[in-house]
Amino acid sequence: MSDIRFTDQHEWVRVDADIATIGITDYAQEQLGDVVFVELPEVGKELAAGDEAAVVESVKAASEVYSPVSGEVVDVNGEIEATPAGVNEDAMGDGWFVKLRLTDPSELDKLMDEAAYAEFVASLE
Amino acid sequence: MTDSPTAEPLKTTPLHALHIEFGAKMVPFAGYDMPVQYPAGVLTEHLHTREAAGLFDVSHMGQAFLQGPDHATVSAALEALVPGDIRDLTLGAIRYTLLLNEQGGILDDLMVTRTAKDGVLFLVVNAACKDADFAHIEKHLPAGVTLQRLPERALIALQGPKAAEVFARLAPQAADQAFMTGVNMDVAGIPCMVSRSGYTGEDGYEISMPEAEAVSLTRKLLAEPEVKPIGLGARDSLRLEAGLCLYGHDIDETTTPVEGALTWTIGKRRREEANFPGAKIILEQIAGGAARKRVGLLPEGKAPAREGTEITDGTGRVIGNVTSGGYGPSVGGPIAMGYVEAAFAKNDTAVELMVRGKGRPAKVAAMPFVQKRFHKPAK
Fold first, then answer.
1. Which residue of B12, B67, B222, B309 pairs with B16 in a disulfide if CB–CB is 3.0 to 4.6 A?
2. Backbone angles phi, psi at B276, to 5 degrees
3. Nearest CA in chain A to B43
4. Per-domain boundaries in chain B
């Protein structure tokens, strides 16, 4: 059973055992508009919670994707590097950015659950 | 693009409600609440304009008549402020020119049309500059020449390869209008000033009309199957691909026409007469070269280089910076323009763009990045 958490910067993190998959939320991709470029970190890079994990750019602007949790990058999504529009098509699924091996699972407790994030997004609109 | 720095309530154009109706995402721009994109999104809107026809609300721009007893008097009054040849404009011809300060810096870029009425020039200036421009012009006018602001007029642009075909349905007369000319004509029965010009690199028109008619005429155009509404986001990517300057970014008070690669706007007679603001500095730069120049830049990788990105010579020495940059949807990759030291301004010169702390290879490139498709009348 995987568990999904959210940040107020509109990243999501889904945890399966000690592997955290990170992406941007559907709300985020909608706000960005058409994604035209994605820059991903090197596999093996150590990220602390709050570090810049990736960059996502629309026609108009560049945005940083911050890692919600700490860990070592074990995989990156080459598909969205080749076809950035994949982020718009399936932000919460196939449009994931990086996978980390979690170093401190307790960091997840500071993040929002699905209901809290939905409420947060509603408050922005 | 420049967001309004003021806390004043945003102004709206006569088409504001229509933008909302079409689902636009509205943003502050130059003091106006403007559509940055519609539900189709910037990418689709951009490509649609290059394939069919896009409709833009540019009513925030400043329109005015400069008028006096005759063309000689009015053109001389304007020529005191700009380096373009206004005197020798033929009836209906449009000139792209620059308001200059005494140092040769660019206060704004503008379009000037010699209208059919003797002694009347039609000016269109940038929204963010219009109050300052009009005050500047008025301050320097000789007796007998006056500036009439036209805040009650709307302005829309119809741009793209299908623009002429579509527009001819409402204004048959516009079909064989030459590029860079302005003509008064009825469009669907509404008296308009129609300019064959634009800011996308495509064929098309800019249509000035009484604000009361703006919604009905815009609706008629949007009802044509080839036409979609286009926001400021795509307007920016379209003009960047076309190599056109955005005032306040690619040119400003600190750049001269020579540095800005706009020497072509300075007429031969004007150079000989040397009587425009900043003429001494500008003519010296034309003769001896300027220290820096605006160029196109093509990043070799996929990473866009945004405004403000430092340009280096590859050894880490900064030789300039990007003034506009992003993704060109029709190019299918990143494009930019910026200023570099003169020694690096030749096409194909290898440079580096410092994006997120990393030098990324790029080449100085000719602009436009896409082929211009302006209308040339069959002769």
1. B12
2. -105, 165
3. A34
4. 16-56+152-241, 62-149, 291-365
pLDDT of A5 strictly over 70: yes
Going along chain A from its start, the domains and CATH numbers come out as: 3-124 (2.40.50.100)
**What percentage of chain A has pLDDT greater than the value 70?**
98
What is the dihedral sign for C-alpha B242, B244, B249, B250? positive
Its CATH class, for the domain covering B16-56+152-241, is alpha beta
Q: Tell me the chain B residues in contact with residue A33 when contact means C-beta distances shorter than 8 Å.
A: 37, 41-43, 233
Rounded Cα distance between A16 and B70, Å, is: 80
User: pLDDT digit string (tens) for A11-38?
Assistant: 999 999 999 999 999 999 999 999 999 9
* Statement: B62-149 belongs to CATH 3.30.70.1400: yes
Per-residue pLDDT of A70-95, as tens digits, reads: 999 999 999 999 999 999 999 999 99
Nearest CA of chain A to the CA of B55: how many Å? Answer: 19
Is B291-365 in CATH node 3.30.460.80? no
Quick check: B59 and B156 in contact, CB under 8 A? Answer: yes
> How many beta-carbon contacts under 8 Å exist across A and B?
44
Nearest CA in chain B to A64: B356
Split at pLDDT 50, 70, 90, the class of A125 is confident
Q: Which B residues in the span 43-72 are in contact with A, Cβ-Cβ below 8 Å?
A: 43-44, 46
- Mark which residues 13-42 of B lie under 8 Å from A by CB: 36-37, 41-42
Tell me the DSSP string of A38-82. Answer: EE-PPTT-EE-TTSEEEEEEESS-EEEEE-SS-EEEEEE-HHHHH
